[in-house]
Amino acid sequence: MREALYYKMIEELAHCQLCPRSCIISEGNFGFCRSRKLINGKLIATAYGQTVSIAKDPIEKKPLYHYHPHSQIVSLGPNACNLNCAFCQNWEISQQDTITQAVKISQLAAYVRGMNPCQVAFTYSEPTMWYEFIWDFAVYAPDVEIVLVTNGYLNPLPWQALLPKIKAINIDLKSIRNDFYKRLCGGDAEIVKANIISAFQAGVHVELTNLLIPGENDSEAELHELAKFVASINPNIPLHISAYRPCYKMNNRATDKAEIEAACEIAAKYLKHVYAGNVLSTRYGRHQRT
Ligand code: SF4
């Protein structure tokens, strides 16, 4: 554990400024994300170095298809999240307390340095809730390439400060519409969109993921809007359109392959690299396109 970055004390309360939730935390209590707690008048990053899992994954699993393809990447992440998506596909590790194991920065660096390429992904839940751990790791091991798989829901100041330390990023663009973010995630689409733009402008390799949920974010109009937005940043940004399965608080039926392919068809009118996720698609599969 170490003291958190991006907060200020006003009288006896910690005002967290890491993400747009702007939690005001009293002594002995956690913020919404369950990773920051006010202890003896200091906001402490309690999830620091505590991972829900650590594994070597194919980088395509992040998903990143255009960054060191076919390589392995050490992956780990905290038991925390600052959104509360009703459809969360990883809710067991993001929305409730679970068993974690401690990882030291020096051990992680030594482990990753034994691989080629030498790269680590902060992923699985919401890694920006590990802001201090990622920051300290980047300072300790500047030779290691850092990948983030994130909801992109951070305040501009900490987000932009972190970007120079990040080589590649997959950001969830859950919907192009704010009412979706407000109703189902407790977030704000405009903040995520602004952070996608700033990540790209900072020279980070950016790929995006959209989880397609029947009846929620799958209208043709919305898909055109989403793909147009991505193309307005750069049409070479890869977009992964993934199938949803009922999870956590949502019971909508699962997305089928035909729906994913139809959504990919629309996105491909604007974008050069569109991929189907969580379904076996021959038309929009990992590396083949017809
Ligand atoms: S990072 Fe956590 S504690 Fe800070 S504002 Fe966001 S949800 Fe609240």
Description of the structure:
The protein is α/β, with parallel strands linked by helices. It folds into 2 domains: 2-45, no CATH class; 50-277, TIM Barrel (Alpha-Beta Barrel), CATH 3.20.20.70. The protein contains 8 helices and 16 strands. The protein has helices at residues 91-94, 105-113, 131-140, 156-162, 178-185, 189-201, 220-233, 257-267, and strands at 2-3, 7-10, 13-16, 24-25, 36-39, 42-45, 50-51, 54-58, 72-76, 101-102, 119-122, 145-150, 168-172, 205-212, 239-243, 274-277. Strands 8-9-11-12-13-14-15-16 form an 8-stranded mixed beta sheet. It has a 3-stranded antiparallel beta sheet with strand order 1-6-5, with no helix packed on it. Bound molecules: iron/sulfur cluster. Iron/sulfur cluster (SF4) binds at residues 16, 18-19, 21-23, 31-33, 36, 82. Residues 16, 18-19, 21-23, 31-33, 36, 82 line the site of iron/sulfur cluster.
